[in-house]
Amino acid sequence: MNYILRTEKLNFSYMDGTKALKELSMKIPEGKKVAVIGNNGSGKTTLFLHFNGIHRPQSGNIFYRDKKMSYSSGEIKNIRKNVGIVFQDPDNQLFSGSVYQDISYGPVNLGWDEKEIRIKIEEVMNQTGTFDLKDKPTHFLSYGQKKRVAIAGVLAMNPEVMILDEPTAGLDPVFTSQIMELLNDLNKKGTTVIISSHNMDEVFAWADYVFVLSQGEIISEGKPEELFRDAEVLKKANLKKPWVLDMYDYLLNKGLATVGDNIPRTREELLNLIK
Amino acid sequence: MLYIEQFVYSNKLRHTHPLERVVFALVTMIMALIIKDWQVHLLIIFSMLILLVCKAKIKTGVILKLMSIPLGFLIIGVLTIAFQISSADLNYLFYFNIFNINIGITASSLQTAINTLTVSLSAVSCLYFITLTTPMVEIIYVLQKLKVPDSIIELMTLIYRFIFVFIDTAFNIYYAQQARYGHSTFKKSLTSFAILFGNLWGKAFFKSKNLLQSLESRGFEGNIKVLNPEYSFSKNNIISFILLDLLIFFTALFLSR
Question: Could you tell me if the ipTM is greater than 0.85?
């Protein structure tokens, strides 16, 4: 297994003394769908900002493709090209009144050819369903549309790792499933996708690998079907067991479901296993 | 402001190159300022309004309402120009006498007043042509083409975007305060407004920090560089703009003889 991003005993505290990350070590497997879950204030966003070289660890190291980040300006540029972050609040990310300008920003910074950039912009607009918004000003967009534009702006840089801080928070179910679909597509093309989320059902259905973050520490990690069965971890991190898994385990206990090849992750898979 | 924004973004002249519209309006405005003939001014006002209504398809009511805003200031300003105060008899067309001082209108002061009124209105109509057909983003693009320094362009881009973010934030706070009777009396309203502004101030700092982080994560290195959509010139528009300007020019020439 290749690990595209690795942290080693990462420590970080904010100026007011809040310890955001404590001796945090984790390995992100390449080409996987990774979810980081944990309560508000558990350090997810701080961790993500480290991956992209915005925050520097006060102690500890971060490795990108087994190379220790040295924070030289050339390397930072490289890291920011390869690790893209979509921030939680699109209003913090969209700086331009024009959708087109905003999406073009990252690629222009990478110094690509103008023609190449225009082709890429069109491609990501189609991918994220924002093509119809290109003549609209940012402030006329709905929250979901802004979020899509924010994703397009990062996607346009062709990152190897795409980090999304709560990509589905505040979105309606239709749009949520569209985003998860988009993330699946990206992953199939080889992008490592990391998301944070408070929706355990969504994480359970989508992720290959899950990290549980609590008060700046990784308290558990593993495949979702194993991790979400660990009652102790769930209790410690204040998390809820995904309903599909909860129901499946209940039905198994009562002898009402068959044991399939895989543990069901979605409603449909669960229904197929009920006797 | 938001009200005008909606018309600008849906106007029918939008899909051509913004430069042709801005240059046309500026050339016409310069003519309005140079030519001192009220008939030419009326022609300019008239053609701008026709263009806005028939070509850009902006509602007549909206334009008239917008034109009436400067009219209020103008009439007060123009009245002070029209009335001359003097102790001597100045060949007044109309005057009244208070404490041996004559206050009234002379033929030349009337001429100046009318000229000021029409020149201002025609210049305003040219400016409205720009503001109603060209969204801010495109105006910024035109300024960039006209070689305005990058730092000013960046500031304009950011300010334009964040005006709306802050209006939203301010209204959200305001509604939340109203929902809890924060504006039920005048005194409470004052306190609530103070809190609102204080909060907005703090939020501005947070936003700027977050914005910088998100810009950095996309490779910010000190200045904001972006690409604009490719605009195409419209031959028809350019030709009709040139013809219209020529018409105004020759009318002025004819009237001055």
Answer: no
Q: Confirm if A237 and A76 have CB atoms less than 8 A apart.
A: no
Tell whether A96 is within 8 A of chain B (Cβ).
yes
How many angstroms separate the CA atoms of A214 and A217, rounded?
5
Instruction: Per residue of chain B (257 residues), give pLDDT as tens.
Output: 457 788 888 888 888 888 888 999 999 999 888 888 888 889 899 889 988 888 888 888 888 888 888 888 888 988 888 887 776 766 777 777 778 777 778 888 888 888 889 999 999 999 999 988 888 889 999 999 889 998 999 999 999 888 888 888 899 899 999 888 888 899 989 999 999 999 998 888 888 889 999 999 998 888 888 888 888 888 888 888 888 888 888 888 888 77
Among B9, B219, B230, whose Cβ lies nearest the Cβ of A137? B9
Which residues of chain A from 13 to 52 reach within 8 Å of chain B, CB to CB? 49, 52
Q: For A76, name the nearest residue in chain B, comparing CA atoms only.
A: B219
DSSP tag of A132: G
d(CA A232, CA A227): 10
Does A95 sit within 8 Å of B227, measured CB to CB? Answer: no
- pTM above the 0.90 mark? no
Closest partner CB to B215 (pick from A95, A139, A157): A95
pLDDT 10s digits, A142-169: 998 999 999 999 999 999 999 999 998 8
User: Cα A94 vs. chain centroid, distance in angstroms?
Assistant: 19
Q: Is A135 on the interface with B (CB under 8 A)?
A: yes
User: A87, B213: Cβ pair inside 8 Å?
Assistant: yes
A131 touches chain B (CB under 8 A): no
Taking contacts as CB-CB distances below 8 angstroms, the residues of chain A near B143 are none
Instruction: Note every long-range contact of A172-180, with CB atoms under 8 Å and residues 24 or more positions apart, other chains counting.
Output: A172/A144, A175/A144, A176/A202, A178/A129, A179/A147, A179/A148, A179/A151, A180/A205, A180/A206
How many Cβ atoms from other residues are within 10 Å of residue B121's Cβ?
21
Do residues A7 and A21 touch, judged by C-beta distance below 8 A? no
Local structure of A214: helix, strand or coil: strand
CB pair distance less than 8 Å for A137 and B157: no
Alpha carbon distance A155, A86 (integer Å) = 9
